[in-house]
């Protein structure tokens, strides 16, 4: 059995890793969709799809998990989004998601929809981690070690800080 | 004389029907544009263009009205929108709209722009009807009988309720 | 039972009308898709979607046929095309098509696919009719009377002739 | 040395002119990018790219400035935006911008990024000028004389006022 | 009076220059549209819009011609193309074109359409010049001196030669 | 060192596998781009990106190769294509390609461009293999065993045969 799990992974953190480990124990193969793959360089979506792909791959190669990591573009047309996902992924029967729109779209196409079991949501939150990156708090313990390395390789913290500088608008 | 009337029809209700009946008394043929046709499966735009097309067609076939129902895609480029509408519709000279942007765009292209006469706006409002669908109040008396049937056929009320479920976000 | 029939209708001719009459005898409602709806003003696709909509509607209102006429945009992404059609149309279970790609795409989505019964293909052919329009031969007897009127209203024959003028290219 | 300066120029005002005059004293050629070129007919972006092109060209032809004015389309894909700009402009090495996203995107591509020196920001502000246009205050002294003429030619003030009319929504 | 002239200018040659000089003698301002602006790096369209913009601007600044040079994107939707051009350009009333589709589209919108007077078409042809660039024949005398400089600055001849190398396909 | 190799993999065959094995011996990680990812269901591009992803992943998991498999969408805008690839992939410095356009685009961005060493091009050719699939010849020995399984799972041979059926066009 194959299952699909979609997220934005901005960045990929230990809570994400726990979800994937739990799901992978229940399925043969897990497809990790990298959502909003065309987004990057904003405070909410700082990392490119390629950078997020690297975070996930580097982390998961330390585990015995059968997975695919696949970038998924946003298309602003809900009624065709499931077909678009299907064309980019191996066939799957189950989707894990906490998002009501995604749940509805896949339910109407007769997929089995499950909610992933979250892990320590208080600490492991993309929003909180991005905030720590910005204000100089420690964030490294909240993500896998390999993710720290990727963010260093791409100088990610400085990108986020520069993006947060106040505009000085010539308008 | 042909006239154009655009709306989102989420859903098509009795106020809409009255507007169309009044306009059709003044013109030879009325073109009913189904706006934002690519939108569906959100709380504001729950129904697909095909579902809205069915609501309108099933209702209007009970009246002696010469009409066309035509899906119109949003294009995020105001300066070409009128041309896009023109390419999808029979030629027309008059547009009925209450929206200031639509009015301006068609005025600059020398169309006659009129405001449709609304009918009991207090009861007949898409926003209010969608809210009633969500919270379990009676809504059926506010739309034509055929629209009730269409929404039943597509299980529309459950769609809206599922879309409103609180997200449980793995972010 | 609802069935879907897609064509380009450049222009809508008597062969098309016969196909629709035959299918409508077998189904409750027929959905007439106006394919390549964004195309116009070429020798192969001279008429806009709106003009073709008018040809179909004016003709069919003389017959007791339950139909929808719906413009369908080409999207250069085969794997999502069925979903796109589904979002623009009322639900249907059967598709009539002679095109192998369309047949395959709908078959993989479990639709019933049938071939429409053609009618006097020697005379009734869009390609041949457009050629006659261009070279000044009689074409009017090959299309329904209402189509002749539409083409006159939009000065369609002159459009085709002007489009065929030899380029005089400043390249 | 060539430099790039991007703005929306809604409308082009005297503060903009001063910025361009200062930059052009430092560089051989200045490329004036007309951002969000597909936007028009809203209260925030009332003028088309062509209208803004005319404002800039008519004004700058009175000065001895080597410039290019080039419309730049928004593309909702930050990671490719620099390439898109590069394909539309002559090669340049320096960009003047006060916007943190633009600064970051060009910095990552090794451009020299500078902040333009603003000029009397209190008076010369697009937002304030559009507000004056709307409420009938004097705005003409805040823009170059040629811009006044362009706005008259296109009846721009009436466009803004009509766009601000309250909607009377048939929804 | 303003006139519009569209071309691909791959590259801008002396025949083009003569056309522009002749038209500019008849009109107040000429708008030079740079067509297919998104195309580059092929044997038929080797130069980017920015490079072609530079060729035209550098050449025309030696003449007393009132012009605008404006990149125009191809949009695969004939019925809205005129509107798209209108939004990117100052208002104009006359278009010079030898292309039958462009002629038809602007004629239907009530523009005055004229054919530009070509100049020594035997020598001055983009196709022939690109062929000479490829096979090492002299081409420099066929384009304005400034165009030679631009093509040198961007190493254009080598680009064309590399693009013509035989593929060695791993397919 | 990371290298990028792009192909369409329609289907992934033993020649492809040999290329990847050779390159992976020279680099730390190889990024396998799945080109034209939006294409499927044609005789030239029968398989979806997801199906091709499965062919590659299933095959390579039998080898000790550090790789990423990443779908790459065609964008009809050569000048931004490299940026689009960069946003979807981990950073790389070398690209292996036999295609002259790809070579030129990456060369202009200062990548190291190498030609992959082909392996028995006579037998291992996507075009030839698709032809064998169509006419019933043996093809299974030309692709990795896992690819045979994937094509069976998706009933790929029948898809190709159905797509090749003669059209019976109602046009």
Automatic annotation (TrEMBL), chains A, B, C, D, E, F:
Domain Cytidyltransferase-like: 5-131
Protein name as catalogued: Nicotinamide-nucleotide adenylyltransferase
Keyword NAD: yes
Subcellular location: Cytoplasm
Organism the protein comes from: Methanococcus maripaludis
GO biological process, one term: NAD+ biosynthetic process
Phylogenetic lineage: Archaea, Methanobacteriati, Methanobacteriota, Methanomada group, Methanococci
Keywords: ATP-binding, Cytoplasm, NAD, Nucleotide-binding, Nucleotidyltransferase, Pyridine nucleotide biosynthesis, Transferase
GO molecular function, one term: nicotinamide-nucleotide adenylyltransferase activity
